[in-house]
Amino acid sequence: MTDRTDQLRDLARASLRRIGAAVPSGTGLAARTPITGAELFALRASTAGEVTRAVGEAAEAFRAWRTTPAPVRGELVRTLGDLLRAHRADLADLITIEVGKIRSEALGEVQEMIDICDFAVGLSRQLYGRTIASERPGHRLAETWHPLGVVGVISAFNFPAAVWSWNTAIALVCGDAVVWKPSELTPLVSIATSHLLDRAIARTGAPAGLHRLLLAGREAGETLVGDPRVDLVSATGSTRMGREVGPRVAARFGRVLLELGGNNAAVVAPSADLDLALRGIVFAAAGTAGQRCTTLRRLIVHRDVADQLVERLAAVYGRLPVGDPFDDGTLVGPLITEAAADTMAAALDRAQAEGGKLVAGGRRTGGPGAYAEPAIVRMPRQTAIVREETFAPILYVLTYDTFDEAVALHNDVPHGLSSSIFTRDQQEAERFLAADGSDCGIANVNIGTSGAEIGGAFGGEKATGGGRESGSDAWRAYMRRATNTVNYSSTLSLAQNVSFLT
């Protein structure tokens, strides 16, 4: 595998060179590839002093950026989108090298970045407030939105560029500055993406400190979270991480936007189109080697169709090509680390100890690299391991008899990110989307749990953190609201008919 590692190293270096970025050599951080499990480059990690300095530079840039007209701010994001289009293939290569995504998924992630830039450019002319009816004659009551400040972005390895773009494109048009602490597992993607934004900043004349990249581990994240100059911390990662970040930011009266774990389920009703369900389930459960926060982890199937569906799923799983994500035909690449593969194996052992039956996959395949077959486990009930999120391609299958039972099973987990139902019964579909149906931030009908479009707000409830990123009105998290009252009369009227010094 030494030859393959050398090939990947050369490909990464060539992609960075075309983007215009250099690999910062040094110590403290390593760029690795899960394709072979080998180290590609030794990198210099950001120091604690550099974290503090980056926040200071971003705060200074914000003071100029906040008064720049929003449509002008949109031009910066338009330029970034153009650069992403020009280097789509280079970024996709880096994502595959560092994350192990297959080619179509890596290209899809870059396309998602381009799409959010397009969305944000349009948004730059639509940061609407509102006019409110005043109870006082000769008065105008209005609501306006203003830039918030410095946004600290902490992102995870599985979408190393897209999640950054969700936050950064929106924050920039809202008038904010950004300090980014990416996963230490994906430094090359971070270097390349940040460099493209630096090029866009230089090309448009935006303030130089508007975006800062921190390549470091947990300590840098803790410093960023604790800095009172960081007005919003947008953190994507585990629920455990969110439990640490949330209280620390709240203690200093900062804002948080948390996008945490998901234990997502799909209900398959007796009326479901099983061909459609099969395709949706396999991608949602096995895509990205089960390493999406929206990955399908629980399948809740009506008893009348459970055996038939599981048999068909097992047959498809038996044919899923697992291997090098650059190879044509591969659909499932590696898990991110050996530790992730060990976690998957331990979860499968627990599931079987809790009464589960492994009906497909689950075996480690050839290495080096943490490759494993996506697994299907039939469970007698929703046990402790089923209620946990295991970040690996394990699909637990449960059965139900009544719709109410299915919804209760669906909602009986700590997380509330993504959900779906496969049914041709309109009443069931509408009930699933109703207030007493799915308790998730994303609820779908006749489509899987993965693959959200940028036009809708992305996020979930309960232990998923409650944050919303990307489309719809998620932009409001990156701005501060002001309520304005203008008296254009010649008298002073007090609200609620209060009389004072008349």
What does this 3D model show about the protein?
With 502 residues, the chain is α/β, with parallel strands linked by helices. 40% of the residues lie in helices and 20% in strands. It is built from 14 helices and 21 strands. The strands form six sheets. It has a seven-stranded mixed β-sheet, sandwiched between helices. A five-stranded parallel β-sheet has the order 7-6-5-8-9, sandwiched between helices. Strands 3-4-21 form a three-stranded antiparallel β-sheet, with no helix packed on it. β5, α6 and β6 form a beta-alpha-beta unit. The chain starts with a helix and ends in a 15-residue tail after the last strand. The model has no long low-confidence stretch (mean pLDDT 97).
The helix count comes to 14
**Major β-sheet profile:** 7 strands, mixed
Which parts are unreliable, with pLDDT below 50 for 5 consecutive residues or more?
none
**Measured distance between first and last alpha carbons:** 87 Å
Q: In terms of structural class, how would the helical and strand content be classed? A: alpha/beta
- Order the strands across the largest sheet as they lie in space: 12-13-14-11-10-16-17
Backbone CA Rg: 24 Å
Average pLDDT taken over every residue: 97
**How many beta-strand elements?**
21
Global geometry:
globular
Tell me what portion of residues adopts beta-strand conformation: 15-25%
Can you give the helix content as a percent range? 25-40%
InterPro entries: Ald_DH/histidinol_DH, Ald_DH_C, Ald_DH_CS_GLU, Ald_DH_N, Aldehyde_DH_dom, ALDH7A1-like
Keywords: NAD, Oxidoreductase
Organism: Actinoplanes siamensis
Active site: 259
